[in-house]
Amino acid sequence: MIERHPSTERLRSFSRAELSRHQNREVVRHLLTGCERCARSLAAYAPPGIGVARTGPSPHDYDGVFAKARQAFLWSQHEHLEEQRNAPSLLAALEDHPFDRQVLLLMNSRKFWTWPLCCLLLDRSHELGFRDPGRAVDFARLGVRLSEQLSVESYGDTRVADLRARSWGTLANAQRIASDLRASDQSFLRAERLLRKGTGDPLEKARVLLLKASLHGDQRRFPEAIKGLDRVLAIGRRHGDDSLAAKALVKKGMVFGTSGRTDEAIDCLREGLRGIDPKSDPRLAVAAHHNLIVYLIEGGQLQEAVALLDATRPLYEEMGDRMNLIRLQWLEGKIAQSRGRLSEAEALFRSVGTALAEQGLGYDAALLALDLAGVYARQGRTEEMRALAAEMLPSFQSREVHREALAALIVFQKAAKMDRVTLGLVHELSDYLRQCRKTPGVRLRDSV
Amino acid sequence: MRHFEIPPEDAEDILQDAQLTLLYKWEQIRSPESWLVGTLKKKCIMYWRKRRSSLCDAVDTAILDLVATPVAPDQEKAELSFDLNRVLGNLSARCRSLLKLRYGLGYGPSEVAEQMGYRLSSIRKVTNRCLAALTRQLVAVGFHREPEGD
Q1: What is the pLDDT of residue A367?
Q2: Size of interface A-B (CB pairs under 8 A)
Q3: What is the pLDDT of residue A292?
Q4: Cβ burial, residue B121 (10 Å; 0-12/13-18/19+)
Q5: pLDDT digits (tens, 9 = 90+) for B90-141
Q6: How many CB atoms lie within 10 A of CB A166?
């Protein structure tokens, strides 16, 4: 047994670990005898690092490989384009029904089980985001359910795992926006587990990390958020994805801003903006500019904030999104306030307040009222301050607002009644309410 | 592909798999060309890493089977022991000790870790390195290389 040399074919199969246990044992026993001939023969098939390093041109011809791959690609592309064409009508057919019925349809009808429809559902969830967080969660849930129905035979198990991870990541983000941070945490865990079963595509991983950084920011876990964003930045740069790198920088700027590191926030946002093409990503461009202007105002760089606002105004208007236009006016009010043009600031804040109330955005309306209170405090208009405080509390009580935020407003109302509202108190309450929005349970400083 | 010398029959799978992923993720990928090149490179590296690890596992399993065969005649046992020691003799002292514990005394990973003063968490990595050194010796045993494995 030992003396008989294994055939070249058997040695080749051995190098690929394709032999049965018994055949394997025979080959290894033979090699242990030190057979130079078989060792040499095996070295030609063995992987680099085990076999002998080869020199000279590759012994393989890849022309056939590329021709076959091209043919297979064209066939897959044809099928994929067909599915892409059908996806919008399938989405429209789903959208006619309430959520429970949508789930039933998805689970029971195979025609819905396509990759492009899953992507459309996730895109829809992303679009709805802040506009309608409840529906954004529903669409992401549908995406998750659909991704679980996708055929691993048709799409490939690792690719399906990637899409499932993306679906859970989208759901986690929608849950974060809907302030369900605990559920968001759990969904991110699912997304990360699925990524480990996926293709290993670093860009896919970066997308989940990017969304998770927002959760960490909301949870005030700033170091973790920054660490995650640095990884996204590195992946984006390594893969020549400027847009991804810019997103990471913009988000990093926002995290720095929320954590009170205004100078670093401004630096990151400036750098991030350089990599954003407003034509291809206008929403991100507006968000980045908006936050940069806010931090410039906070950092006392009024002149630059005004210049940037003027330059960005067309972008806000081009977007035409009602919320963005309200935010633009709010910024203009803040700038007027910082420049001491208090009547102009008051008029702008009042107009924004009306618009926010129309949109049913009570929390934002309260934050805005505090900006207005800042104007009154500077003018010493105690009567208006009392009236404003009296208006704010019922508006908050009628909505779902954290009890900590309500307590803060009661502090404000009492201070207004006693004519003890100062600019410092207004700023402190405003900061506190911004934190409370995302992290219920944050304590209002004892001094307040 | 040419650079990594992937056998054509496997190169076909690698290329088609990467192309399909690109097709499905087309809208999310900003720079398809660099994505495809990067992905193919990674897949080629992973391909050889997997092949190396499967080969080392096959060698390990075969030797464990050989030393555990209960009915082997004495002469056969002595020859196996001689051949194995000769190959192990070309490895570093560390790998020689580790593999002697594994094959000679039938120690499991936790016992090897304890005997050699390694943490259990790192013994797998050290064992894999020694198995790779052993496999290299089997492939190159006729060439009388210097001791390796460190």
Answers
A1: 80
A2: 166
A3: 94
A4: exposed
A5: 899 999 999 999 998 889 899 999 999 999 889 999 999 999 999 998 887 5
A6: 26
Token readout for B8 is: 């054509």
pLDDT of residue A271: 95
Q: Is A240 left (phi over 0), alpha (psi -120 to 50) or beta?
A: left
Q: Tell me whether residues B7 and A60 touch, CB distance under 8 A.
A: yes
Nearest-CA distance from A1 to chain B in Å? 11
With helix as H, strand as E and coil as C, how does B72-121 read?
A: CCHHHHHHHHHHHHHHHCCECHHHHHHHHHHHHCCCCHHHHHHHHCCCHH
Question: In one letter, which amino acid is A306?
Answer: V
Identify the burial level of A393 via C-beta atoms within 10 angstroms of its C-beta, where 0-12 means exposed, 13-18 middle and 19 or more buried: middle
Is residue A14 within 8 angstroms of chain B, CB to CB? yes
Show residues of chain A in contact with B45, CB under 8 Å: none
The residue behind tokens 């013994």 is B123
The residue behind tokens 């009306």 is A354
Query: Of chain B residues 16-45, which have a CB less than 8 A from chain A?
Result: 16-17, 19-21, 23-25, 27-31, 34-35, 38-39, 42
Cβ atoms of residues A212 and A220 within 8 Å: no
* CA dihedral over A189, A193, A194, A200, signed as positive or negative: positive
Cβ neighbours for A181, distance < 8 A, ≥ 6 positions apart:
A175, A215, A218, A219, A438, A439
Q: What are phi and psi of B147, to 5 degrees?
A: -55, 140
**A317 and A301 Cβ atoms separated by less than 8 Å:** no
Q: Which of A443, A365, A373, A379 is CA-nearest to residue A408?
A: A443
Chain B: residue whose CA lies nearest to A201: B39
A104, B40 in Cβ contact below 8 A? no
Mean pLDDT in chain A? 86
| A275-297 per-position pLDDT tens digit | 898 888 888 899 899 999 999 98
Q: What is the DSSP letter of A418?
A: T
Q: Distance between CA atoms of A268 and A277, rounded to whole angstroms? A: 16
- Find the CB nearest A34 among B25, B63, B86: B86
- What does the pLDDT look like over A382-431, one tens digit per residue? 888 888 877 777 766 655 556 666 777 777 778 877 777 777 877 777 77
Alpha-carbon gap, residue A325 to A351, rounded angstroms:
12
Chain A, window 138-157: residues with a beta carbon less than 8 angstroms from a chain B beta carbon:
155-156
When CB atoms are compared, the residue of A29, A31, A241 closest to B30 is: A241
Q: Which position has the token pair 């009154």?
A: A376
Could A65 and B8 be called an inter-chain contact, meaning their C-beta atoms sit closer than 8 Å?
yes
pLDDT of residue A443: 52
Mean pLDDT of A329-336: 91
- CA A68-A74-A79 angle, 5° bins: 130
For the four alpha carbons of A385, A441, A178 and A263, in that order, the dihedral sign comes to positive
Q: Which member of B5, B23, B27 has the closest CB to residue A54?
A: B5
Residues in chain A with CB shorter than 8 Å from the CB of B63 are 28, 32
CA distance to A103, A248, A312, A391, per residue, from A289 (Å) = 39, 15, 7, 32
First to last CA, chain B: 31
